[in-house]
Every structure is written in structure tokens, then in C-alpha cells.
Specification:
409 residues, Cytochrome Bc1 Complex, Chain A, domain 1, 2 domains, 6-stranded mixed beta sheet, 5-stranded mixed beta sheet
């Protein structure tokens, strides 16, 4: 994939030539350090979509998008370790299929939203209602509630517990001045990068972006890596909440070693629980012992953790914990067939990602921001992984936290 880097000093443009797609895709990324008041980012994005100086109403914004041949757009937020990423993106049909003016108008559209906030006090209650509803909706699901509480218990540093969706009392205390200050902070302190995929390089794209970039430009040098919580013994926490029929069980392990090029743990995760129906956890806990409907695992290179999640009858929790511990120990004996199956899954995922320009751009900024290897580099390492390479990883795991959420009996 041909690429071109344009360094503008206070921001960079990363252009990728992708001639298999009929769309142009632009992602303006704001990278910042996570803070205690990150929930204000949620409030800000909510405000921008409710009203701004360009589109006073949601209806005006929707009509304008339809006029631009139903271009798709979004402003999203996500977290990678100690870093936040705000993604202001737009996807639209290649102008060669319509008219020349369309290109500039389409790229202008997301800037019309983000560059022109309207800090209208009368919309504050509406924003709070949306945030409280989102928190309530998430907390209604026992798995989401358990996940939120378990990680708060696991981490021993307050800066690791920041949330995009906080409790109601925090949301209700938000002021419009706080939202405005957070907007100015993002403008002044974020590192800005623009990732573009298109059939051909076009100076007009860069010109429109350059005219609209209002960010001061910053270089984030703080690490994105999280430090695993350190404890002398495993902590076990049992929580009780009305309305839940099944128990939620989450077991969080520390991963002792960290190496960018060490891809063995991805195999470990796939064989253990990430591989779905073919995983060892699924076969042992569900199929052989019928203790749960579903069970999975998740390895986070950035957080340096390995977690196991399941929902099950409350009477089966202790038995499930014993079985899970046994499955972890049994990973000292891995078959070549399991390694081969994991490799084939990775190759399949790589191939499918080639059909999605947004995923391809996401991979590129993952390489730039978070030391991610390219698919080609990773595949060469994957091919060399052996069963023995995976087996030794058991010694790198230390069980840290067991969290159990039960309904009242």
C-alpha cells in the first residue's frame, strides 16, 4: 500500500493510496493523556451533535449530510491504555463520480461540527440526561456492570479508573464552563494526526484540512502502557445486586513480561478462551461440565493483563473457578494442531480487514501510536510460534483479582 507523510509542523497527514475502494475516508485523530474528568469528553461530543454554530439542530445536520450524497460521519472516543483518542471522521464517495466542488464540501463537513461548538446552557440538562441514560443502560446488563466494578477493584491507581460514563452524581454536577474548558484543553494539548485513504493523492484534500485545523499541536511523549496492579495475594470480591438471575465471574491475571515483538500471548489467548467454541475454556467449563452458556478470555498488551469472563448459575461459581485454574495450568501442554488453528484464524482476520478501509487506517495509526506491528511483520512472527513457545507463558501469569457479582438469593 503506497503511502505519503506530510508534516505540517503542528500536525501530520498520513495519506494511503487504496484503489480498491470507491470512497475517500478521512480520520482526524486527537490523542491526549487520560484524566480524571474524561467524562467531559462524552459531554462535549454529545453537545456537538445536539447543536453547534453551523447546524443549530440535528435536523439541519442530517439534511446537509443527505445533500452530500449521504456521506457518513462520526465523532467517537476510545481509550488505549493511558491515552485517549478522539476520532473525527468522514467517509464519502469519490468526487470523480459526482462533481469537483463535492470534495471540499465533504471534507469541510466534520470540521463544521467540531470547530464550531455552541455552549448553550439550555442544552445542558439534555446532555446530562443522555449521559445518565447511557450509564443506566450499560449498568442494566450484569456483564457490563460486573466489568466496570471488577476493573475498578483491580486497579490500585486512581488515574487508571477514569471513565467516559461516570455515576449520576458526577454527571449531574457538570457545568457548561467545564465542557468549554475541556474543549479548549483538547484544542491546545492534543497531538493531531490526519489519516486519509483515497484512490489518488489530491492536494485539495490537504488544502481543506489545512484551512480548518485549529488545533495548536502537541507531541505526546508520555507512555500509553498501564502498570499492572501489584498485590501480595489474590483478592476475591463478592458483590450482590438485586435483579440478576445469574452470577458474573471475572478473573484478572497480571502478565509479567512485556515485549512488543512477542506474539505468543495472542496464541495463548486464542487457544485458552478467545477462540470461541474451539477454545479450551469453552470445552472444559461449558461442554464437559455444563456450568455456563458462554466463557471467553481477553489479553491486553497495553494493559498487560489477561482476563476471563463468564456468566453462570450462582451455585456453580466455586466449581468454575477451580476448573478455570486447572485449564490455565493445563496450558503447559499445547498441541501443534491448536497452534495451527490459531494461526489460520489470524490469517483469516487479516484478509477480512483488507476489505474495510477504516480498519486498514486503524491498523496504521495503531502502528504509529502504539507500537503495533504491521500485519506483514506480525505474520512472519506468527509463523514461527511453536507449542513450546505458548506453554511457557503459563509462568508469566499471576492471578490478581477474582470478582463475583451475584443476585440476591
Amino acid at each position: 500500500m503506497d503511502s505519503k507523510l506530510i508534516d505540517k509542523g503542528y500536525y501530520k497527514v498520513h495519506f494511503y493510496k487504496m484503489d480498491k475502494f470507491k470512497t475517500i475516508n478521512v480520520h482526524i485523530l486527537l490523542r491526549s493523556i487520560r484524566k480524571q474528568d474524561d467524562y467531559l469528553i462524552t459531554a462535549l461530543i454529545g453537545l456537538l451533535f445536539l447543536t453547534n454554530k453551523t447546524f443549530k439542530t440535528k435536523k439541519e445536520r442530517i439534511i446537509r449530510a443527505e445533500e452530500l450524497y449521504n456521506l457518513s460521519y462520526n465523532i467517537s472516543k476510545n481509550r488505549r491504555g493511558m491515552h485517549n483518542i478522539i476520532d473525527i471522521n468522514v467517509s464519502f464517495v469519490n468526487p470523480k463520480y459526482v462533481d469537483d466542488d463535492y470534495l471540499c464540501d465533504a471534507i469541510q463537513f466534520p470540521f463544521d461540527i467540531f470547530n464550531n461548538p455552541l455552549f448553550d446552557e439550555s442544552r445542558l440538562d439534555e446532555i446530562k440526561e443522555l449521559m445518565n441514560r447511557e450509564f443506566s443502560d450499560r449498568d442494566e446488563y450484569p456483564s457490563d456492570h460486573a466489568d466496570r466494578i471488577a476493573w475498578d477493584i483491580y486497579y490500585d491507581k486512581d488515574e487508571y479508573k477514569t471513565k467516559f460514563y461516570p455515576e449520576k452524581e458526577i454527571v449531574d454536577s457538570i457545568t457548561m464552563d467545564q465542557i468549554k474548558n475541556k474543549y479548549e484543553e483538547l484544542i491546545n494539548e492534543s497531538q493531531v494526526d490526519v489519516y486519509i485513504s483515497a484512490e489518488e493523492y489530491d492536494d485539495r484534500i490537504i488544502d481543506v484540512i489545512d484551512k480548518n485545523i485549529k488545533f495548536k499541536g502537541n507531541t505526546i511523549t508520555d507512555t500509553y502502557l498501564m502498570e499492572p496492579a501489584k498485590r501480595n495475594k489474590v483478592q476475591k470480591y463478592v458483590d450482590v445486586k438485586n435483579g440478576y438471575n445469574q452470577a458474573q465471574l471475572i478473573m484478572i491475571f497480571n502478565v509479567k513480561k512485556y515485549d512488543l515483538k512477542d506474539k505468543r500471548f495472542i496464541f495463548f489467548d486464542e487457544i485458552m478462551g478467545g477462540g470461541g467454541l474451539s477454545s479450551r475454556l469453552f470445552k472444559k467449563v461449558r461442554e464437559e461440565n455444563q456450568l455456563c452458556y458462554n466463557i471467553s478470555s481477553d489479553y491486553s498488551r497495553i494493559d498487560r493483563t489477561f482476563a476471563i469472563y463468564t456468566s453462570l448459575d450462582q451455585s456453580n461459581v466455586d466449581k468454575a473457578i477451580k476448573l478455570i485454574k486447572q485449564v490455565v495450568k493445563d496450558m503447559k501442554n499445547v498441541k501443534q494442531e491448536e497452534v495451527d488453528n490459531a494461526l489460520n484464524t489470524f490469517i483469516s482476520n487479516m484478509e477480512s480487514s483488507k476489505d474495510n478501509p477504516h480498519r486498514l487506517l486503524s491498523q496504521e495509526y495503531g502502528c504509529d501510536y502504539f507500537d503495533r506491528l504491521s500485519d506483514e511483520e506480525a505474520l512472519e512472527i506468527y509463523k514461527k510460534v511453536t507449542p513450546k513457545d505458548v506453554e511457557v507463558l503459563v509462568d508469566d501469569l499471576t492471578l490478581n483479582t477474582i470478582y463475583i457479582l451475584k443476585g440476591e438469593e
